[in-house]
Amino acid sequence: DTGVSQDPRHKITKRGQNVTFRCDPISEHNRLYWYRQTLGQGPEFLTYFQNEAQLEKSRLLSDRFSAERPKGSFSTLEIQRTEQGDSAMYLCASSSSGVNEQFFGPGTRLTVL
Amino acid sequence: TQLLEQSPQFLSIQEGENLTVYCNSSSVFSSLQWYRQEPGEGPVLLVTVVTGGEVKKLKRLTFQFGDARKDSSLHITAAQPGDTGLYLCAGVLTGNNRKLIWGLGTSLAVNP
Lengths: 113, 112
Fold this sequence. Notes:
Radius of gyration of chain A: 13 Å
Structural class of chain B: mainly beta
Number of strands of chain B: 11
Radius of gyration of chain B: 13 Å
Strand content of chain A: over 45%
Helix content of chain B: under 10%
Oligomer: heterodimer
């Protein structure tokens, strides 16, 4: 399967703990996006990379959130000192430059107790 | 302010009925995509429309892009329970080709 993959698919953690999610994009895609989605709502943009450069971050992304894409391939999203309000589906998508279509992974469902 | 307004937000119909979902904006988009998402999964791209007035068909689904490229519609003919899901429209604003602007989605339930 050469689609976008995300790991883990589900994560349950206690409030205050740190969590890290991984996204592996489609190999030839140089753009990578992170979104957050709550039940029944559309995806909410968090941040975007072109190759290894993080080009845009949402103002909604607090300083507890950090994302990296060190070699321009896979990316990680870390949430420090998790809060119950962080519970959501975290989606990763990738695309090629100049192409507007984004291809999504299956998401990581985070539950903060 | 939501740049892309989707309506209706929720729709529950019987198998065999037709339905239309709308995606409207006051802004002009260079392209617009429709996605379908099932519970617990990521959105799956259905179609991209780029030309004003364009109509695309995907089996029982018909997608239309408005002449002014500010709105789009998705029409499903003879809906089936397998069509159940969240339908999302997303567009790229003219002059900004990096980020998709998302609607809030239409949650469709097709009852057998």
